[in-house]
Design a protein that fits this description.
- It contains 16 helices and 18 strands.
- The longest helix is centred in the N-terminal third of the chain and has 20 residues, at 13-32.
- It is an alpha+beta fold and 425 residues long.
- Strand 11 (271-278) and strand 12 (287-293) form a beta hairpin.
- The chain folds into 3 domains: 13-175 and 257-324, Bira Bifunctional Protein, Domain 2 (BirA Bifunctional Protein, domain 2), CATH 3.30.930; 177-235, no CATH class; 335-424, Rossmann fold, CATH 3.40.50.800.
- The protein has an 8-stranded mixed β-sheet, with helices on both faces. Strands 15-14-16-17-18 form a 5-stranded mixed β-sheet, with helices on both faces.
Length: 425
């Protein structure tokens, strides 16, 4: 018997309603902010992520799902091999789509959102799978600090719409490319002296991408970093002003945040504002979502230099928190039809079709259960109403309608039940 691949998950029917609630809530909120949905492919050229995320990023070095592909002809005798991968994140894909489809020329400033699976070859653990799902957005075409404020506000409102409480918003500024070099030099001067005290991964990061040391979860590394007492001295005046405007804007909207000077994110494309939203229910991997500015990425991928910012939430992590906080999926107002006998069955199937034509969610028993067994099935399906048709109901020209929440039941005609249920949905 075949089994699912480690690090993947079957999303079963009883769980799908929770996923749908989050997806529907996301679409409502994105619409309020005038973001339009985009659906890029799951597979891209591997070089897209090498270029955008950085050759030294752990996603590129350790976590990409490479896809074997046949050699392709370049128009001459020789053939070259094209390397593809399953997308590890969506930002690079969306910037690629933005440029390839000339959205920069057609619309200029563009606001997009996406919902879909991502893939990373890493050790599975709570809230971290090899196939996972993101809900996120990208706003491309502006350097305005007001856009940073909108995007963080959008993330905050999405969490409120998901009924998630007690999350924390952490922000920082990495500044421009020159500022990042200054920060790298400051860290290099301090950390090279403590190299032997760092974990093996961080010792390697010192030579590849020293900013990644700030992301380390190792306790001994965290203790060394805290003693550095980082400040924003590496920021140039323009970047300091930009970050000041972001903080003032969040305060004006009464959005709580903490400045975390150790927050850098692990990808090379981030500039200026970065942020992360965490929740204690998730344990050591406590990020619900994260994002930030990537003002150089559009130009890096062949477009004109322009500002951009985005974020993504991990759907699996959102669901872990909503379940821990006792959130239950709302009723879908299912009507369950129970028929007793051959004639009742014929009339019942006609009524079932009429209910569906009127937009009433309805189902029936196809296993020839007893009345008691069919009622148990209706309860298992969380049906809000049950309709029973038996010999007595046929003689009277009525159906028996039972409210599953109150236990009340009444005899009404089929026309009446259709009108009553249509008014309820």
């Amino acid at each position: 018997m075949f089994k699912r691949i480690i690090g993947t998950k079957d999303i079963l029917p009883e769980e799908v309603s929770s996923w749908q609630e989050i997806e529907e809530a996301s679409r409502r909120v994105f619409s309020l902010y005038n973001y339009k949905e985009i659906r890029p492919p799951l597979m891209e050229e591997a070089g897209l992520f090498n270029r955008s995320l950085g050759e030294t990023a752990e996603v590129v070095q350790k976590q990409m799902f490479l896809v074997n592909s046949a050699p392709i002809s370049n128009g001459k005798q020789e053939k070259t091999k094209q390397f593809y991968c399953l997308r590890p994140e969506a930002t690079a894909s969306i910037v690629r789509a933005y440029l390839e489809n000339h959205l920069d020329k057609t619309f200029g400033f563009t606001k997009l959102y996406y919902i879909g699976p991502m893939f990373r070859l890493e050790r599975p653990q709570k809230g971290r799978l090899r196939e996972f799902h993101h809900i996120g957005c990208e706003a491309i075409g502006s350097l305005d600090a007001a856009l940073d404020i909108e995007v963080i506000s959008l993330a905050d409102n999405l969490l409120k719409e998901y009924n998630i409480k007690d999350y924390k918003i952490q922000i920082n500024s990495l500044g421009c490319q020159k500022d990042r070099k200054n920060l790298t030099a400051i860290l290099g001067k301090s950390l090279m002296q403590k190299k032997e005290q760092l974990c093996v991964d961080c010792q390697q990061r010192l030579g590849r991408n020293i900013l990644r040391v700030l992301d380390c979860k190792n306790e001994s590394c965290r203790e060394i970093l805290i003693k550095l007492e980082l400040s924003d001295d590496y920021l140039c005046p323009d970047c300091k002003m930009h970050f000041k405007q972001v903080k003032e804007g969040l305060e004006n909207l009464k959005i709580g945040y903490n400045v975390n000077p150790y927050l850098v994110r692990g990808l090379d494309y981030y500039t200026r504002t970065v942020f992360e939203i965490t929740h204690n229910e998730l344990g050591s991997q406590d990020a619900l979502g994260a994002g930030g500015r990537y003002d150089n990425l559009v130009a890096e991928l062949g477009g004109q230099s322009t500002g951009a910012i985005g974020f993504a939430f991990g759907v699996e992590r959102l669901l872990l928190v909503t379940r821990s906080q006792g959130h239950k999926v709302t009723s879908k107002n299912l009507v369950y039809l129970i028929t007793l006998g051959k004639e009742a069955r014929q009339q019942g199937l006609k009524l079932l079709a009429q209910m569906r034509q009127k937009g009433i969610s309805a189902d029936t028993d196809y296993e020839e259960k007893s009345l008691k067994g069919a009622m148990r099935r209706a309860n298992d399906l969380a049906a809000s109403q049950v309709i029973i048709i038996g010999e007595d109901e046929i003689k009277k020209g009525v159906v028996l309608l039972k409210d599953m929440a109150t236990g009340e039941q009444s005899e009404i005609t089929r026309d009446q039940v259709l009108r009553q249920l249509s008014g309820r949905t």
